[in-house]
């Protein structure tokens, strides 16, 4: 079987895809935190430039960003190889989209929680990480997991610059096999790649659902207790008129 015969070649491409995806996820999260902090600055003179940068990165097609980073940066003295050029371009794109997700999650936390944190002397990063962020995670996680799967899929753009990731390995395998043996195995190779990307994204979505359930569990327990209290109060309200008539 063709895939088994060239398994080591395809496995190298898969490992490069995983490494590139991890770098993009880490870089995108770092840029998202920085951009979200910039968007939340109280001074409009400082937050407005960050907003313009974020909107430009979101509105430019990702393929254009990849090509710009690879071909323009050398003109200003910054030369990156295809791997790191792909990682940087997709990371800034992911950071721009992730910044609004994080900002929306933090904004969903009631202002009273911020005041409570300051009242208990947990101001600054300590209160933000220990109190505010856990409450914002149920809002942040669902769209951010979708963004992470998008970053994994965007790792295939590295093939445009020549990164030997999974899609590039498949293209080379198809070309060489077609020339040497005749007949194109494209449907078989691309079908296998489709399955690999589906498994990767499905695994990420599964982990994301587990994390979402972990952060929403305390609030669901509180909601059940409130529902039970409301139900018991309704029973008391319904039984009170009966006592009056007797």
TrEMBL record:
Keywords: Amino-acid transport, Cell membrane, Membrane, Transmembrane, Transmembrane helix, Transport. InterPro entries: AA_ABC_transptr_permease_3TM (IPR010065), ArtM/GltK/GlnP/TcyL/YhdX-like (IPR043429), MetI-like (IPR000515), MetI-like_sf (IPR035906). Its main location: membrane. One of its GO terms (biological process) is amino acid transport. The chain crosses the membrane at residues 20-39, 60-78, 187-207. The keyword Cell membrane applies. One of its GO terms (molecular function) is transmembrane transporter activity. One of its GO terms (cellular component) is ATP-binding cassette (ABC) transporter complex. Pfam families: BPD_transp_1. Residues 14-208 form the ABC transmembrane type-1 domain. Coiled coil: none annotated. It is a multi-pass membrane protein. It is found in: Cell inner membrane; Cell membrane. NCBIfam families: HEQRo_perm_3TM. Belongs to the binding-protein-dependent transport system permease family. HisMQ subfamily. PANTHER family: L-CYSTINE TRANSPORT SYSTEM PERMEASE PROTEIN TCYL, MEMBRANE COMPONENT OF AMINO ACID ABC TRANSPORTER. This is Amine acid ABC transporter, permease protein, 3-TM region, His/Glu/Gln/Arg/opine family.
């Amino acid at each position: 079987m063709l895939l088994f015969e060239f398994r080591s070649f395809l496995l190298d491409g898969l490992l490069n895809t995983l490494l590139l995806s991890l770098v993009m996820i880490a870089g995108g999260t770092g840029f998202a935190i920085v951009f979200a902090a910039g968007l939340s600055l109280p001074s409009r003179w400082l937050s407005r430039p960050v907003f313009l940068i974020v909107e430009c990165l979101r509105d430019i097609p990702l393929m254009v960003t990849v090509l710009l980073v690879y071909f323009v940066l050398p003109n200003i003295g910054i030369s990156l190889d295809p791997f790191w050029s792909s990682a940087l371009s997709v990371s800034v794109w992911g950071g721009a989209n992730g910044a609004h997700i994080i900002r929306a999650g933090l904004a969903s936390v009631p202002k009273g929680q911020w005041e409570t944190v300051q009242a208990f002397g947990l101001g600054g990063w300590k209160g933000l990480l220990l109190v505010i962020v856990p409450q914002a995670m149920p809002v942040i996680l669902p769209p951010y997991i979708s963004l992470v799967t998008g970053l994994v899929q965007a790792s295939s753009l590295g093939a445009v610059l020549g990164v030997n990731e999974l899609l590039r390995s498949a293209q080379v395998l198809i070309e060489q096999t077609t020339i040497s043996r005749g007949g194109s195995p494209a449907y078989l190779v691309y079908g296998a790649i489709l399955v690999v990307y589906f498994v990767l994204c499905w695994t990420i979505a599964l982990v994301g659902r587990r994390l979402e359930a972990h952060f929403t569990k305390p609030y669901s327990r509180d909601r059940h207790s409130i529902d039970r209290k409301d139900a018991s109060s309704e029973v008391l309200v319904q039984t009170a008129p009966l006592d009056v008539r007797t």
